[in-house]
Fold each of these.
Amino acid sequence: MKKERTQMKNRSATERVKDFNEVPLGYTLEEAVEEAKRCIQCKNPKCVSGCPVEVKIPAFIAELAKGNVQAAVDKIKETNALPAICGRVCPQEEQCEMKCILGVKGEPVAIGNLERFVADYTRKQSVVSSKQKAERKNARVAIIGSGPAGLTCAADLALLGYQVTMFESLHVTGGVLRYGIPEFRLPKAIVDQEVSYIKTLGVDVQPDMLIGSVLTIDELLKDFQAVFIGSGAGLPKFMKLKGESLEGIYSANEFLFRVNMMKAYQFPNNLTPVKVGKKVVVVGAGNVAMDSARVALRLGAEKVSIIYRRSHEEMPARKEEIHRAVEEGIEFQLLTNPEAYHADREGRVAEIECIKMELGEPDASGRRRPVPVANSNFKQPVDTVIVAIGNDPNPLIPLRTPSLKTEKWGGVIVDQNQLTSIPNVCAGGDIVRGAATVISAMGDGKKAAKTIHTALR
């Protein structure tokens, strides 16, 4: 039994900070087969229970170990319509790989890397035959939002034979997969490919349809027998500090949207400039903060610092994303919190005022609560600030749907089956959870599809 996993090669930090091309290079066929052979095919595989979308992990790895790449991707797509995406952005180290028995005395099987490989290897092939689709039903289902929750719910229902229409507020599909994750971490060609596959299942995609404005939930229910709400969390959070509205202070949402959707990273070929200056500060330490910091570096910043009020151990970002940020020269100012922003004569942010923190007793999240250190305030010069402390759910649909019950913070209330307060209307993803992971949103979409199927059947 080989204890060490087959490592996936990455582009060097000095090379990759100069462009927006993907960082990991992926496995070769030989490397993938070698890693797949590490799986010991447990009789009671714990890895499957760690997967929110219930991928039959040992089964697909067994096919790959024999060199049957097509059979491997077929096995994955029985439960997961987005393997190329999951293989890149899912936190496998906290889910399926954490439960791998090999991890007890060595390194777990690189499940995410293998999933990515089989999806990429078969990208140009049709991976689901028409025989796998159920007989077409008369029932129609509306999906609101084409992010990971909506795409998953749509794919599962289409495979069950339902007539599925997906409504997307933007002109292109993908939701947060497209506007929120940089090209070097998730190439948009991958998103296009996964969405194209879902269209082949018969899903009708309607872009430029802002539900809550163009149509309401009540109006949809006149033409559709069920609705799934997966409109995401697009309302940025701020700290309500002095000077927070100064020019040069972005929400991570706006910053990444400009770069990803409006192609600011291709300026001047695309006329969407994003001025970052020499000194950039990112507030927060999640995956979005890491993305924002690494993007700023690629846009020409000379010094990029991440300010986080807790210590390294409490940072919510994936370990590999933190590691890559460190490799690329991102600085970390830990146990530090912003207090105010100060402007220059033109009204643009010029300084950030911070205070030192220390860790106290654990709070509701289980992490130790940061406590300000008296008389520890300090200032430092800055040209751009990116606030990456999370997002709240999009408020439009709840505002236009009085019968839809929500939490005080704006999240749609659902039961254990993703059913809302309105019959035959489910919800999932960030509109329910607040800003969360891609795979948790996909899990919600899958559960909602089962609920809708049960109700309509």
Note: The chain has 17 helices and 16 strands.
Amino acid sequence: MGSTGILVTLIVVTIALTTVLLMRPSITAGTTGKILAFVALCVLPALCIEAGMSTHMQRSEQTQFCISCHSMTTHGQSLYVDDPTYLAAQHFQNHRVSPDMACYACHTDYTIYGPFKDKLQGVKRIYIQYLSTPPAVIHINGGYSNLQCLHCHAGARNFEENPVHRPMMDSLTSNQVSCISSGCHDTVHNASGLAHLKMWRPGQ
């Protein structure tokens, strides 16, 4: 049973027990009834909240969740650009990252509290989406760190033995030179320039 199934089961059991207690409050007169009431009114709701948060945290890591906001639609389309110079598209189409978690894989901070900070940033962006006006051009706060690239690429032979990468490895690991700087992997999404580009269609 998946996390969604567990959550639904907990909610149903909580509602059922609470309904029984409301219809027959005399049950709580004895010790067993008091324990049942404590479970139904305190323990199960707490478990529902925990399971709900866990389910939605997992859902927020899904590519479809990320691109469900109107302002991110073009970023989602950029994953299908049929052009090897588009960095995000090449990672997505060639499964260098999991297609189901493509956004999360490349945009989460892999430090100890990184995913938590990223979730908070996500809440802020959801607030902007529904209660404010999203910016015309979306930027990452603080820029894009090479650590997010090196999380996967560091140690990979074809990366570290690449004649372009090898002489500048120290500059890459120290973030002095950006992986997405001009002349390197500088076309990432280009979300505003997709109108006339050829798109890749899986299975066609």
Note: The CA atoms of residues 146 and 175 lie 6 Å apart.
Amino acid sequence: MRGWQVRRWIACRLEFKGRRRTLLQPGRFTELFFLDEATALAAGHRPCAECRREDFVRFRQAWAEDRGQDPPRADDLDRVLHAERIDGGKRLHPATLRDLPGGSMVADEGRAWLVVHGDLIAWSPFGYGERRAVPGSTRVLSLTAPSVIGALQAGYAPMLHPTAGLP
């Protein structure tokens, strides 16, 4: 069984210019729905260059600032993201909590957590829950790819579900 057909994994708007699609069409891409953008980024997706143009431009600008280069083309982003998200399964990246910016997602104690101001907030498909303070020296497995972490560190702020409790 093949796990993917294309490198382009994008996070789109649910509504855009009144377009309607029939979901799960054979031979077409598979639509996935995420709790929020932090979850989509952790899954290896990036903002769509069409329906989320402003977010895409901000994302690639932050990506470029982190790397000290010109903003990349969408294909260049997708090539890097693809390499970072796969390794026979979901690729996890060892990290120290203090090195991760807000909006990153980590795996710890068999659960997924959102990093916010150095704290961890428990993730579920229905929203965020328990918040806990964790020492910055804690070693975790980042679900968010290194290149996306760089974009977050350079100022890209993903949209978060209201249950994250942020203004």
Note: The two ends are 43 Å apart (CA to CA).
Amino acid sequence: MPERDGYIPGVPCWVDTSQVDPAAALPFYAGLFGWEFENVLPEGMEAKYFIGRIRGGDVAAVGSVPDGAPPMSMWNTYIWVENAEETAAKVRDAGGGVVTEPFDVMDSGRMAVLTDPEGAVFCLWQPNSHKGATVVNEHGSLNFNSLATRDPGAAETFYGAVFGWKMLDLPTGMMWTLPGYGDHLEESTPGLRDQMAQVGAPEGFVDVVAAITPIADDGPETPAHWSVTFAVDDADATAAKAQELGGTVVAGPIDAPWTRMAVIEDPHGATFIASQFVLENKDLTA
């Protein structure tokens, strides 16, 4: 896959996992995905931020739980913006909340932590030297971000007002689209539209930036949240390897539209999805 060199506003661009003991989490992700790590925070700081890389390209990070946050491990989604302050104001106006006001992350960029009206937490990323994930959509790298929500209609109103997202309702599930995103991808990867048409991608899919997972009203008391999906070559082998490394397979592997996937919890409680692209599953319904 070609490496990414930045994103456009409104596109999820980076993920990291907050960990109570970041160093203790490194062997799991190194063993599972082959990431090589570098702590990019100055020597002597108590907090740690290990960027994981494939072939030298940034993939994701393992960092300390921020001061004041609950002492729990979790994966976080960052969305690219031009101006963190202006976007945070849009979040407030649309009924969301600001957990952490925009602040500088050294010379890497500017970030903020927000919630949507249902309480799902996400982050803003106003880039400077750090341009988000440079390796995506290959084994061990970011493949998708998904919002779990009980009220897709309200979510559409909120995220539409903040990021300009539209909802695309497909037989295989609901997706978030950003008008013009496909044009941006075509510029960086000429022929992408034709490639997607050849495998039967539905109309409008080229503009997809994220997915929507409805939470069943009669299901467990699952809070609204953003989840992270990593691409893998073999979902079954990845699930087995995760268990060998001390992780837990929460669900799957199961066949799903276009994929075979497993929900995995790392040894410290952070949950993510491992997804294998399976063309033969394209006609399955959600």
Note: The radius of gyration is 18 Å.
